[in-house]
């Protein structure tokens, strides 16, 4: 296998200089339950890492810590070689980390423009909301993603699933995410909209954005990701280049926590110089 | 679809408000016929306007409380407590009115920081916290002056509640009416210019014109009515009552908060989806606490108006006011499930409720019947709200 020289289990050698995100020995427990137990994971620019596991495996918790939604108990988060403190969502946003949650995190009673800028409203010199500037900026982003999306001033609860997804994704695009966390981005979408998300991911990769993709859809995972990282019961089972493993092997890791025989783990970007 | 309906739907007009205004007009016309012209007389309109002010002031902030999925059951008791405190300081301790009001505000801020901290930082349901407050602060209102009524005699202070000397006179009333009209016009022109500059679609000139002219007409008709009311043996008509002016200023300020500031935006986001609000980084607890601070300020203002109207602070001040305030808010289209409600709606809701009550009073309807009817009006408003949301597809 191509990356067989890279590290043995438990000691992942990474190319720190080029690494976009390094999560080192992250732990989190709720009450007595270890939701995330000594997990390390990294991400390179322009790379899609699929984070897989059953419900309750800890993948969403791990990602929420990166996004600042939960503070970490112990461990380090290193962004572009610098150790950072991510204590709240605003910290993550300031570091260029954007999240698209499975629930989309939209306020259903507000319109698309308000949702795009929620928490980061554009203000006038008088510190009041600059509604018309937000409106005009928002329309530009929405149109980039969906040419038919013009009813941006009605409450998002009246929009279709695809349009709601566009609003959630627009946040990442407008605020120039360097690191994007996508939690089940296609779960609620029709085929056409799923294709749109796939195209968008390719485009963001080209721009050097690193993407963590949480998905249950094996087709998406194999079509979109460069690496797969599988978690079970709060622990990392293993990280592999997507092209090195089969769907059955991945399912074996998800269900049984069993690493495939004879496959090398891939802590680094495929094709990165050693 | 019918092009006319399409245009109407696309125009940014709040049809619920239009409908509520129609209900208010209908109520007024019906009572006017039944009372043989007394209901729409300047005197009656003047009285309704100033009677509604206290509930109206509190309803503007109750909208935001309910929008965030909270409730304040303590508002009547706290108003009683603060009112008695201010009256006590002026009467029994001979404080000047500004000093007494400042002390009242300070006490009210402490009360609401206490309640707000329990709600926002400890996560105790607001219903429970303020239910406790409802009882405690009614008791506190009694303790302050040992249950004794505290009369108020300061002539300036008494004007704040309206009444005999509580109008601002005709000239000032016309001036304020004119000022509001100019402000409406200027803000509409600015909005259109700003929308054009950013390439944002605008309403047609006709729709925007109507949207400006209607409020202008309402304001000027209101001013004319207030200026037509002259108390016997007074040299000049009353003009706008001061409590109504205060209510209007409060409503404008609250609308500004809702539409133009982050605070208002966050209040609605938190009510619409609390999880999303936290995930996008809104400081949910801080905003909730700020809302309780705002509640403190407005409750103090309402207390000042209330004791001034009553010429005294009594321990029963604001008894069951919380129910009237919540009723006005709900009649005004605020959903108890959170996330939706408007300041204008609360103004209309308070006016509708007070108009029906006063109208029945004019017709000598007994107090029992009045309560029965007001209660059913509340239910009718909520039924309408549910039906309206289903019809527009806005099921929350």
The beta-strand count of chain A equals 10
Please write the CATH class name of the largest domain in chain A.
Alpha Beta
CATH level-1 class of the largest domain in chain B: Mainly Alpha
CATH superfamily of the largest domain in chain A: P-loop containing nucleotide triphosphate hydrolases
Provide the gyration radius of chain B in Å: 21 Å
Order of helices and strands of chain A: EEEHEEHEHHHEHEHEEH
Judged by helices, strands and strand pairing, the structural class of chain A is alpha/beta
Q: What general form of chain A does the structure show?
A: globular
State the helicity of chain B in percent bands. over 70%
Q: Biggest interface pair, residues each?
A: A-B, 37 and 32 residues
N/C terminus separation of chain A: 14 Å
**H/E series of chain B, N to C?**
HHHHHHEHHHHHHHEHHH
SSE layout:
The complex is a heterodimer of chains A (274) and B (396).
Chain A: E1 21-30, E2 33-43, E3 48-52, H1 59-66, E4 74-79, E5 82-84, H2 89-94, E6 97-100, H3 112-116, H4 131-145, H5 161-174, E7 179-183, H6 191-206, E8 210-214, H7 218-224, E9 227-232, E10 235-241, H8 247-256
Parallel strand pairs in A: 3-8, 3-9, 6-7, 7-8
Antiparallel strand pairs in A: 1-2, 1-4, 4-5, 9-10
Helix pairs in contact in A: 4-5
Chain B: H1 3-10, H2 15-34, H3 42-67, H4 75-91, H5 97-120, H6 126-144, E1 150-151, H7 155-159, H8 170-197, H9 205-227, H10 242-260, H11 262-272, H12 274-279, H13 284-310, E2 312-313, H14 321-331, H15 343-362, H16 367-392
Antiparallel strand pairs in B: 1-2
Helix pairs in contact in B: 2-15, 3-10, 3-13, 3-14, 3-15, 4-5, 4-6, 4-13, 5-6, 5-13, 8-9, 10-11, 11-13, 14-15, 14-16, 15-16
